[in-house]
Amino acid sequence: MASVESLPVAVIGAGPVGLAAAAHLLERGLEPLVLEAGPAVGSAIRKWGHIRLFSTWKYNLDPASVRLLERSGWEAPRPTALPYGSQIVSDYLEPLAATPELKGRIRTGARVLAVTRQGMDKGRSLGRDEAPFLLRIGHDGGEVTELLARAVIDASGTWTTTAPLGSSGLPALGEPEARAAGLVTGPLPDVTAGGFAGRRTLVVGAGHSAANMVLDLARVARANPGTEVLWAIRGASPERAYGGGNADELPARGQLGTRLRTAVDTGAVQLLTGFHTASLETRGNTLTVHAADGRSVTVDRVIPAAGFRPDLSILSELRLDLDPAVEAPKALGPLIDPDFHSCGTVPAHGARILAQPEKDFYLAGMKSYGRAPTFLMATGYEQVRSVAAALAGDTQAADAVELELPETGVCSTSLPADAAGDACCGSPVPVTIGFATGVEHGRSGESARV
Fold it and tell me: Which of 17, 172, 176, 261 could form a disulfide with 380 if both were Cys (CB 3.0 to 4.6 A apart)?
């Protein structure tokens, strides 16, 4: 029987962070096996390929992945350019997956159904750390197989598990029926592709995803009379959603908030503040959305942009220690909980912060942030660099965590709950976690979708 050390490290998800994990593992002399549920790499990003990122290529490229690409003659995009999601896939992820080093180490159409330890359920402790991981995988066509791994990095993201519209954490009454009727869309639809012109649409959410949807709809409305745009947020004020404006070190991010403010101030967008969705009532091809305070609006479509949640169901047989509020690794949770911190107070972090009671299992990328909306792609790259070093036994490199990100101009601590949104903060200087002497707080940032 092969030793555990000879088994591959299973990486769940072939998005930017998952492929970066594979590149870092290869540099450390470890064997990665990337498992992607979708039919191709970057499957989630392909869903929002029409969205232009406000972070430049500089912040969206992983160093180990770039080194791998350059050996195949790849030329990096202009670092100051702002890519669309589709360009992240076509100009970066697809060439990366096609490199000789990664091409045979990625399996698409391979959905991980469960992760456990071989021969052990969650309750068994004796010899647990030495047992290999067992992953059960569902393939296109219905076949189910299993494979063994020495370690697991779950970078599968949160795209498939959107938060419900109901403000109490549950789907609003009537929400499942409205979704089934197609009156509630998926997250980040391409509103220019048809179905929204001349109609009344409500966007729910206070973050950058919502801002993109509101502004895209406003453009449709300018070209199509009769199109109405409504924007509902739970907070009492939209100021945090407007961002740092000219103080933001990412100009496109600052402009996003400035344009959003202008759209509201000019009446192009109708803003509903303090709107806590209680129920949805489907009436033929229209939908009436009722708030907890008695207000209601009737619209043709609702775009949900209220965030995402991690799918933890596949990990039910693993021993995890998660923050009870945001469902991130317990040591990370208090640093990213939007009720108490903006993303500007999140320090750079790596394997030690992400470690679980289940030895050699790590949540990475957006999934590591659980329900918190303060994740940036570059943060995930540093996470998996550190994790790869830890798995290779290089504790010193794993602990030397550094991250350089741009200021937003809106960072603060002790935020009230109604001010928490998916703001994106950053720091102009590198930040290092020194585990022997404590943590020096720096700033990290937001979603891979922005």
Answer: 17
Looking only at the bridges linking them, the beta strands covering 433-434 and 438-439 are antiparallel
Return the beta strands (E) in 166-251 as ranges. Answer: 200-204, 228-232
Edge-to-edge strands of the sheet including 296-299?
277-283, 286-291, 296-299
3-class DSSP state for residue 352? helix
φ, ψ of residue 338 to 5 degrees: the values are -65, -15
290-313 residue pLDDT tens: 999 999 999 999 999 999 999 999
Please state the rounded mean pLDDT for residues 86-98: 98
DSSP string, 31-82: -EEEE-SSSSTTHHHHHTTTSBPSS-GGGT--HHHHHHHHTTT--PPPTT--
Residues 293, 272, 288, 183: is their CA dihedral positive or negative? negative
Q: Considering only 18-27, 54-63, 154-163, which range has the smallest mean pLDDT?
A: 54-63
Burial 174-201, CB ≥16 within 10 A → b, else e:
bbeebbeeebbbebbbebeeeebeebbb
Evaluate whether 404 touches 348 at the Cβ level (below 8 Å). Answer: no
**pTM value surpassing 0.85:** yes
8 Å CB contact between 21 and 153: yes
Beta carbons of 149 and 7 less than 8 angstroms apart:
yes
| Structure token digits, residue 258 | 């400035």
d(CA 1, CA 68): 32
Query: What 3-state DSSP class applies to 97?
Result: helix
Six token digits for residue 404: 């350089």
Residues 32 and 387: their CA atoms lie apart, in Å, by 13
Token code pair at residue 154: 């779950």
| Cα end-to-end distance, the chain, whole Å | 46
DSSP labels for 271-318?
Answer: EE-S--EEEEEEETTEEEEEETTS-EEEESEEEE-S-B----GGGTTS
Nearest CA to 439 out of 385, 388, 403 is that of: 403
> Two tokens at 434?
């020194």
Within 10 A of 301 (CB to CB), how many other CB atoms are there?
Answer: 22
235-252 pLDDT, tens per residue?
998 887 776 565 555 566
pLDDT digits (tens, 9 = 90+) for 110-132: 999 999 999 999 999 999 999 99
